[in-house]
Amino acid sequence: MTFRLTIVVDNKAADTLCAEHGYCLHLQTPEGNILFDTGQQRAFLPNMERLGLDPADISTLVLSHGHYDHTGGVVDLLKMNRNIDIYLHSAVFQPRYSLDGEAPAIVRMPFAAMEAITLHPENRIHWLSRPVAVTSFIGITGPISRTNDFEDTGGSFFLDPEGRQVDIIKDDVAMWLHTPDGLVICVGCCHSGLVNTLDYITARTGEKRIATIIGGLHLLSSSRERLAKTVAALRNFEIGKIVACHCSGEEAVNYLQEHLTTEVVWGQAGMVIEI
């Protein structure tokens, strides 16, 4: 059984590929091709073409959450593929703002992407309220329990521009693949927290070995205290490799590299991992 994971969109990119603030991962599996997020939009189709990946060949789209930098390419994808199955949480459509800057920034899913999803065949849309199996060896978490006291969403996120209603990003989901070497865990932004995500997936699968973690870790604004607690918790897992992407944060990744014996590397658009 062979899996081929290709990073299509990321903040960093190999030569000839477009980089943008966003994330998209393509998974080629024996039971169909899966797309995990779609980036903002600009880099999605050009990078797919340059990587030799055909949107029409994708059987499943999984949206990790409803931020613009993970959902913008949905419009182009659904124009080219009306037969794709979409897995997402209903909260992806919420109004969303980031108050990390001087003025509120709109970070919701673009309206065009929302419309494309609502016009997609109803029998092809799967609302995530609990863990589900996409294939015999691939699962999606659904909402992730948040049980530790040191992880948060990783930013100043709200459902209103005045900052009165905190957005806990309850639609944040992750994926896992069962492989002979253990789990491959795919995360979009990990707004539920990396440790919460690992706890949730390993408890439900019964598999303690984690071959690879790939995706955005959203540790870019984390305090040293949170990073120290994250490292201490990660040491309790048997992790082979971490491929940090998108929103992981330079300082945070450097910290993980310095304090973990696990291999920690940066991902970029064009990176291919075969398992």
UniProtKB/TrEMBL annotation:
<dbReference type="GO" id="GO:0016740">
    <property type="term" value="F:transferase activity"/>
</dbReference>
<dbReference type="Pfam" id="PF00753">
    <property type="entry name" value="Lactamase_B"/>
</dbReference>
<dbReference type="InterPro" id="IPR052926">
    <property type="entry name" value="Metallo-beta-lactamase_dom"/>
</dbReference>
<feature type="domain" description="Metallo-beta-lactamase">
    <location>
        <begin position="21"/>
        <end position="246"/>
    </location>
</feature>
<dbReference type="InterPro" id="IPR036866">
    <property type="entry name" value="RibonucZ/Hydroxyglut_hydro"/>
</dbReference>
<protein>
    <submittedName>
        <fullName>7,8-dihydropterin-6-yl-methyl-4-(Beta-D-ribofuranosyl)aminobenzene 5'-phosphate synthase</fullName>
    </submittedName>
</protein>
<dbReference type="InterPro" id="IPR001279">
    <property type="entry name" value="Metallo-B-lactamas"/>
</dbReference>
<dbReference type="InterPro" id="IPR041712">
    <property type="entry name" value="DHPS-like_MBL-fold"/>
</dbReference>
